[in-house]
């Protein structure tokens, strides 16, 4: 077991999948919520990052020191996993990170450093300045690693066991691509009695690196993140994410990229708090927006009769809520209530 303590806990849990009566009424089909906001860190990243860190701790002859650069959920997942595994961790945040995230990390007892104005600068400092000084240092990337995708793929395994009947579609948000990579990997690795689920990969305008690549027909970067959905703030998706998108464009797999506005993503988070009594970040609101706007049938039910559509089972991946507060949601309602197509019920 290497340096992994005998009493170490796995840093992720099996999460519930529940039918949402409110969103099902809006969509006209069966809409299920995969509640990964209930992970120990507050987001789905506990699965992938926890999987990577557990493997590294088990294989290491000495106690590893984990290093992660993140302004949000990846850092929290690393810190939470380090606590479960009994290992030290250092998280480097860019100056753009909200104080809420810094305070959450400090409360978990990890070392926090601030460097650079954006994630790439924080990451470079971590890899070039901090890690070379630590022989036990282990780098924890936010999204671009096979073990992270392996961990995220457990979502699909759980869904197969939790939903009675076929899964016609899964909707998830995309930042760097770790989540959608895992979901696609999970779908393609399992055998299905009927057609494989379609996957809808959602971004907000201004954090739409995947959709920009789809539009360009090649793997490109966007110049900057201008969306309020900072958790989706990767200017370039992983190479593996682009490979899945290419296969989707070629019709080899069932994956499609779409974008929604900040206003609709924000107001979807507000409405979800009212419907589900759960607080989720605007990055998760992007996923919910597709349902609240009434667009699910366009993506998953073309050619269906009304009776057929009523029987369709669609899963919304509720990816996280660690970075949201009631005050923030109230601000969204004031700022975007008139502009958004998503309205409070």
Automatic annotation (TrEMBL):
Listed cofactors: pyridoxal 5'-phosphate
Organism of derivation: Emericellopsis cladophorae
Similarity annotation: Belongs to the serine/threonine dehydratase family.
Keyword Cytoplasm recorded: yes
Keywords: Cytoplasm, Gluconeogenesis, Lyase, Pyridoxal phosphate
GO cellular component, one term: cytoplasm
Highest taxon, organism lineage: Eukaryota
Every Tryptophan synthase beta chain-like PALP domain range: 13-303
GO molecular function list: L-serine ammonia-lyase activity; pyridoxal phosphate binding; threonine deaminase activity
Location(s), subcellular: Cytoplasm
Pfam families, A to Z: PALP (PF00291)
Reactions catalysed: L-serine = pyruvate + NH4(+)
Name under which the protein is recorded: L-serine ammonia-lyase
Pathway: Carbohydrate biosynthesis; gluconeogenesis
EC number: 4.3.1.17
Top-level class of the enzyme under EC nomenclature: lyase
PANTHER family: CATABOLIC L-SERINE_THREONINE DEHYDRATASE (PTHR48078:SF2), THREONINE DEHYDRATASE, MITOCHONDRIAL-RELATED (PTHR48078)
Gene3D superfamilies on file: 3.40.50.1100
Keyword Signal annotated: no
GO biological process: gluconeogenesis; isoleucine biosynthetic process; L-serine catabolic process; L-threonine catabolic process
InterPro entries linked: Ser/Thr_Dehydratase, Ser/Thr_deHydtase_PyrdxlP-BS, TrpB-like_PALP, TrpB-like_PALP_sf
């Amino acid at each position: 077991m290497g340096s992994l303590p005998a009493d170490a806990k796995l840093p992720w849990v099996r999460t519930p999948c529940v039918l949402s009566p409110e969103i099902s009424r809006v969509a006209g089909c069966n809409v299920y919520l995969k509640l990964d906001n209930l992970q120990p860190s507050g987001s789905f990243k506990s699965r992938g990052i926890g999987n990577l860190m557990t493997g590294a701790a088990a294989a290491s002859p000495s106690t590893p020191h984990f290093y992660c650069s993140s302004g949000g959920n990846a850092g929290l997942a690393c810190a939470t996993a380090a606590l479960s595994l009994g290992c030290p961790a250092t998280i480097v945040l860019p100056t753009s990170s909200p104080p809420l995230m810094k305070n959450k990390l400090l409360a978990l007892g990890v070392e926090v450093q601030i460097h650079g104005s954006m994630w790439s600068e924080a990451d470079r400092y971590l890899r070039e300045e901090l890690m070379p000084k630590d022989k036990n240092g282990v780098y924890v990337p936010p999204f671009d690693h096979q073990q992270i995708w392996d961990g995220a793929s457990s979502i699909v395994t759980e869904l197969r066991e939790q939903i009675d009947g076929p899964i016609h579609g899964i909707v998830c948000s995309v930042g760097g691509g770790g989540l959608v990579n895992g979901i696609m990997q999970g779908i393609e690795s399992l055998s299905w009695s009927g057609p494989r689920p379609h996957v809808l990969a959602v971004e907000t305008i201004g954090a739409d690196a995947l959709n920009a690549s789809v539009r360009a027909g090649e793997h490109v970067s966007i110049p900057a993140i201008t969306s309020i959905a900072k958790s989706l703030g990767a200017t370039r998706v992983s190479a593996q994410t682009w490979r899945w998108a290419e296969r989707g464009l070629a019709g080899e797999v069932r994956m499609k990229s779409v974008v929604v506005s900040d206003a609709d993503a924000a107001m979807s988070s507000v409405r979800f708090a009212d419907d589900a009594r759960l607080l989720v970040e605007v990055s998760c609101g992007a996923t919910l927006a597709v349902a609240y706007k009434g667009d699910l049938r366009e993506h998953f039910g073309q050619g269906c009769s009304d009776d057929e559509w009523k029987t369709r089972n669609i899963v919304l991946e509720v990816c996280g809520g660690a970075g949201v507060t009631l005050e923030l949601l109230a601000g969204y309602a004031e700022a975007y209530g008139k502009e958004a197509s998503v309205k409070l019920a």
